[in-house]
Amino acid sequence: MRTGEISAIVTTVRRGQRYTEANRALAARTAQQLGIPNVPRGSDSLEELRAAYGVDAVLVARRGLLTAVTSEGELFFHPGMAHLRIKNLLLGHGDHLVSALGLTEGMHVLDGTLGTGADAIVESFAVGERGTVTALEANPLIAAVIADGLAHATGDNYEMHAAMRRISVHHADALSFLRDAKDRSVDVVYFDPMFRRPLHESAGMNALRTLADMRALTEETIAEACRVARRRVVMKERQGSKEFERLGFTRITGGKYSRIAYGVMEL
């Protein structure tokens, strides 16, 4: 069954492998939300299920959370370095993304590329309870896995836990969402498009790349972002990327020795 450009089914772990009613309910709820088959697990392996149904991915409800299993690896919610970045912010050490976005308490952020959700967590912490983070994800499977994790996984500390819960995730194409948004309706818009060459290899990142929208940002998307944002539009890319110049980012910031940089448009 296809959802967008990705074919998928949803199932649970085998009975006896921490099979719980909560996992069964999560699988059923996910199948209904995404409009994909909810398949009884039986004794089949996930690879056998993927082959039998001719799908690209199998969503598995395990330990109360979703995992997307692809031929390239497994994608599941993990906050990555977000907990360390929040600890650094609590200690007053700062964060390059927070600085690039110019985030302060109470601001409203539109994150056009949710991905693993780590940046959105840091954004949510930085803007606090009075602020908002709306995160968009073009792929419905990534959106389902990460939104479920943000809503139900446990944070390393209260600040991180609360920041995760405040993020509003939407399965949406960024350009389409921006076209429908009102002028100056958020403070900042942020993009982290998938790098053409990964900075590092891992099963999780390989699975993300398999599912992710690999299209480059367009000039129209940036123009719409500039209309919708009140203060800044920011894009993350590799240091020295020609995408900054192509899309009109002339101010580049970030860590001196970092392999990534942020292009900033002041509005």
From TrEMBL:
GO biological process: methylation
Keywords from the named record: Methyltransferase, Transferase
Origin: domain of life: Bacteria
GO MF, any single term: methyltransferase activity
Matching InterPro entries: 16SrRNA_methylTrfase_J (IPR007536), SAM-dependent_MTases_sf (IPR029063)
Protein name, per record: Class I SAM-dependent methyltransferase
One Pfam family it belongs to: SAM_MT
